[in-house]
Amino acid sequence: MNATDPKALPQELIAAARAAARNAHAPYSRFAVGAALLMQDGSVITGANFENASYGLSLCAETVAIATASAAGRLREIVAVGVIGGAMDADGAPTGTTPVSPCGRCRQVINEAAQMGGRDLPVHCGAAQGDAVRTYRLSELLPDAFGPADLGIS
């Protein structure tokens, strides 16, 4: 990942999220989501949404990626997040040109990792197709967030 070029970074994370979204298991909503986490060392961890016939058991892409980082012992190393989503075409590829942002649950999950790492993470929200990217600080997406610090954990 090209962390030295701030204009390239969001596009590279969005590209990684798009690649992950191709692996989405979304037979019910037909809405594929991909997430990419930039780690301190420049590596990227990705995730795709995984739906379940018992809808409440479905997992969002951001949650999958963050759980993967946690399982690798790297929860505190996340420095940026990229996410894309779109309706799936007949071949299962995400489509659409409107950037999507994390759902409320995922904002809270991202906040957990952000607080553990002591960062206000940038969240790059892209579209399944095209160059449109909206960048937010996590604190903009989830103001006054509740997290580990509120429990005296850092």
TrEMBL record:
Protein name according to UniProt: Cytidine deaminase
Q: Encoded by which gene? A: cdd
Which residues take part in binding substrate? 49-55
MF annotations from Gene Ontology: cytidine deaminase activity; zinc ion binding
Question: Which GO BP terms apply?
Answer: nucleobase-containing small molecule metabolic process; pyrimidine-containing compound metabolic process
**Domain CMP/dCMP-type deaminase spans what residues?**
8-149
Top enzyme class, one word, equals hydrolase
Gene Ontology, cellular component aspect: cytosol
- This protein's UniProt keywords: Hydrolase, Metal-binding, Zinc
UniProt family annotation: Belongs to the cytidine and deoxycytidylate deaminase family.
Query: Which cofactors must be present for this protein to function?
Result: Zn(2+)
- EC identifiers of the protein: 3.5.4.5
**Purpose of the protein:** This enzyme scavenges exogenous and endogenous cytidine and 2'-deoxycytidine for UMP synthesis.
**CDD domains assigned:** cytidine_deaminase
Q: Any idea which positions bind Zn(2+)?
A: 60, 103, 106
Q: Which residues are the active-site ones?
A: 62 (proton donor)
Q: Which reaction does it catalyse?
A: cytidine + H2O + H(+) = uridine + NH4(+); 2'-deoxycytidine + H2O + H(+) = 2'-deoxyuridine + NH4(+)
NCBIfam families xrefs: cyt_deam_tetra, PRK05578.1
